[in-house]
Protein: Ribosomal RNA large subunit methyltransferase H
Organism: Bacteroides stercorirosoris
Amino acid sequence: MKTTLLVVGRTVEPHFITAINDYVQRTKRYLTFEMEVIPELKNTKSLSMEVQKEKEGELICKAFQPGDVIVLLDEGGKEMRSIEFADYMKRKMNTVNKRLVFVIGGPYGFSQKVYQAAHEKMSLSKMTFSHQMVRLIFVEQLYRAMNILSGGPYHHE
């Protein structure tokens, strides 16, 4: 199984880039993982929030491949503790044949087309985080889950 984090727009803050890249590299020790960036839309000032979501949604859906299991990182999704997320990943590693794709949308969330394409929704918190911070939190939790499954020392519980 390949695992992909699909994001809209590039990470621009150097400290986030460094930390994200660190956890991506750590995670790759355990599973095939990549972060795929969909370029942000240009000239969005003249576009309504809904039009922006639709245009981003089209780009997100184009990135999906046949057989993908799509999980939206969405405030309305299921919350899990780190141990539960590790169990979730273990189940997915045994059942997903192609790619497990986690998606972080743009600033206004997902279009209906993306929601319709998704298989599941997952929430990292009830709090709101910047999109760059969500990327870091997610890759850290993915690394933590893989370390838990391998019996590593990273997680203390």
Notes: The helical segments are 14-27, 49-63, 82-95, 112-117, 131-149. Residues 1-37+52-147 form a domain with the Alpha/beta knot fold (CATH 3.40.1280.10). The longest strand covers residues 69-79.
